[in-house]
Write a structure and sequence with these properties.
single chain, 114 residues, mainly alpha, 4 helices, 53% helix, globular
Length: 114
């Protein structure tokens, strides 16, 4: 399994370990509309992580502006995930979107494009 992660720069106020972010997606990924039962959480987790980390690192641009870069990064950073970009892109976008839910400070206004 991939190492635990958190949104960069955010330490949970309640002392919850970084594993909480992985657990959040582990519980929810089967109910996502793009979920494929032939793929495991270990396949999806790197996509969620890429989305979370990318949003925290690039808060100025809209997702649509960085999607091509994320596709390139997926090829390099997917690790052991069996998902190709067409399968992973939805999970990457959900990770990007949920980074805002987890840390509203990442929202820099109405030009986000989401």
């Amino acid at each position: 399994m991939s190492p635990d992660y958190q949104i960069p720069g955010r330490v949970p106020e309640d002392g919850v370990q970084r594993e909480a972010f992985a657990n959040y997606w582990r519980e929810r990924y089967p109910s996502e509309p793009y979920y494929d039962a032939s793929s495991s959480f270990d396949d999806y987790e790197p996509a969620y992580r890429l989305g979370h980390q990318s949003r925290a690192q690039d808060v100025i641009r809209a997702y649509e502006e960085v999607e091509r870069e994320l596709q390139t990064r997926w090829a390099a950073e997917r690790g052991e995930s069996r998902l190709e970009w067409l399968q992973a892109q939805h999970a990457v976008k959900r990770g990007w979107e949920d980074a805002l839910l987890a840390d509203p400070r990442l929202d820099k206004g109405p030009t986000r494009g989401i």
